[in-house]
Amino acid sequence: MKDLQLIKGNVALAEAAIQAGCRYYFGYPITPQNDIPEYLSEHLPKAGGIFIQAESEIASINMVMGASASGARAMTSSSGPGISLMQEGMSYMAGSEIPCLVVNIMRCGPGLGGISPTQGDYFQATRGGGHGDYYNIVLAPASVQEMFNLTIKAFELADKYRNPAMILADAILGQMKEPASLEPTEPIQFFDKPWAITGAKDHKPQYLKTLYLNDGEQEAHNLQLKEKYDHIRENEPLYEEQATSDAEIVIVAFGTASRIVKTAIKLAREEGIRAGLVRPITLFPFPSKAVYEASKRVRKVLVVEMNTGQMLTDVQISAHREADIHFYGRPGGGVPTPEEVLAEIKRSIHATAGIQAP
Amino acid sequence: MPQQVFKRPRALSDKPTHFCPGCTHGTAHRLVAEAIDYFGVQERTIGVACVGCAVFMYDYFNVDVIEAPHGRAPAVATGVKRAQPEKIVFTYQGDGDLAAIGTSEIIHTANRGENITVIFVNNTVYGMTGGQMAPTTLLGQQTTTSPYGRDFRTDGYPIRMAEMLATLEGVAYSTRVSLHNPKAVLNAKKAIRKAFEMQVNEMGFSLVEVLSACHTNWRVSPLAGQKKVEEEMIPYFPLGVFKERTGKDFL
């Protein structure tokens, strides 16, 4: 039995980064993720690393780009408004195939919004976010333990595919304390990086760039990126299923919302309603096959999110065409109670068809 | 036996440049390459390209190069240098890049005293995008977005970056040179070598502002362009050393 510690989600994530070999952190303070830079400012130097509080999120992500391009594991963390500023750099990194970890502990927007938990940045995270034709690899933890485990996983996937990876969590996951083991469950994977710019000593001069002006060159580059994304879609989806084998209704939810749904499912089963859960752990790649299989079997689907229906679109794309999809969303910092979700489960079972307005 | 007294620097590739005929970017590139050769650091030098005319530096320098987003080269260079402190890292930026969109990055990188070298080519216009107004455009100067001439009441004043950055504690060396005649080029060569020397000796942040003509967007001949540099730019952007640290900074 591994030792458990009562620890904050943000801190577990920061500690995971150090254990994953991240030695460079560049960031700018924003609530509700400040525990991450605070922890790393103390512990990275002790691990032989560098912590810099940058002058902006824009500078942060570009410093990450420089350190990652050097072959190091590097990261930044922020929340909604700051992530918006980082999108330019993330687009460049996706384009020049430089890996990194970006952590988004979501706060509610649009705009400055508020600091309460939300899942409103799903589109921004999973649709590239910045300009051009690219995707981030996006992982959505639902516990403090997963804040630790998936951070390590995110570094590995980023390096494996030379692509930005993102942890998409919210204020609840960042701020709450839970017992968690801060020991990796498997040996941490590292990858050779012959593409890194380290000075043209052992190789011809090499370049990390995104500009392709010759005829067809940019298209060829983007098609090569697409091949990579297709490969990721095929090989890397992660999800969790609970109580779906006998379910009459399947609920799809990620992150914090999935925890609330788990309690709602328990309440439902106590009342004789056979509800089950499919929880996407990777949001890109979206576990489309799992959603398809479940919706094909069960037909009744309820999507629960803390936004106005963003992952809903991925469920609609993935689900069996005869699936009866309903939606319950609480945006702008509204957190649903298990009882409210239970009421929605009942309503969805009795409703004939169609998407329910939030 | 004939003796070779002049040759292409090792750090410079033999690719013909894409720059407009007569453009001094080629000269500036050569001076940077000569400095890299002089210190024998080609194999441990990393260039950071910005956007605009200079982005193709990876075609011209025989060193590893990373391309940064518009204005962000100093931040990218910070990441490279922090991860590889033993490498020689330089950015090569134009005035739209460094003095407009990238002002925040250049000021804070300089203020942190990052041990990097910045080559800042100031030709008072946005070159590659077709000659729009830059923060360094002279008062009265016509550009495609200041067709009536730059007016301080609407557009503010041309920014003197080398002087401004010299006020920051983190800066080891800040100077302005020009390329308008052979004597100026020789001075520029010394300044660029000095800037790299600062980095080699771990003295901190060094910047060389290089006044350059953009005769294509200025709509003048190359020779007339050099004359304008001398007669119109230098009076507003005086040449000289604005800061030179003599000892390491142990504040």
Structure explained in plain terms:
- The complex is a heterodimer of chains A (358) and B (251).
- Chain A has 358 residues and is α/β, with parallel strands linked by helices.
- Chain A folds into two domains: 5-236, Rossmann fold (3-Layer(aba) Sandwich); 240-350, Rossmann fold (3-Layer(aba) Sandwich).
- Chain A is built from twelve helices and 15 strands.
- In chain A, the strands form three sheets. Chain A has a seven-stranded mixed sheet, sandwiched between helices.
- In chain A, strand 6, helix 6 and strand 7 form a beta-alpha-beta unit.
- Chain A is globular and about 70 Å long.
- Chain A starts with a strand and ends in an 8-residue tail after the last helix.
- The mean pLDDT of chain A is 96.
- Chain B is α/β, with parallel strands linked by helices and 251 residues long.
- Chain B has one domain (24-244): Rossmann fold (3-Layer(aba) Sandwich), CATH 3.40.50.970.
- Chain B has ten helices and nine strands.
- In chain B, strands 2-1-3-4-8-7-9 form a seven-stranded mixed sheet, sandwiched between helices. In chain B, strands 5-6 form a two-stranded antiparallel ribbon.
- In chain B, helix 1 packs across helix 8 (182-200) and helix 4 (95-101) crosses helix 5.
- Chain B starts with 24 loop residues before the first helix and ends in a 7-residue tail after the last strand.
- The mean pLDDT of chain B is 96.
- Chain A binds chain B through residues 23-24, 26, 50, 52, 54-56, 58-60, 62-72, 74, 88-89, 92, 96, 197-201, 205-211, and chain B through 42-46, 48-49, 55, 58, 61-69, 72, 75-84, 87, 104-105, 107-108, 112.
- Chain B: It comes from Abyssobacteria bacterium (strain SURF_5).
- Chain B: Keywords: Oxidoreductase.
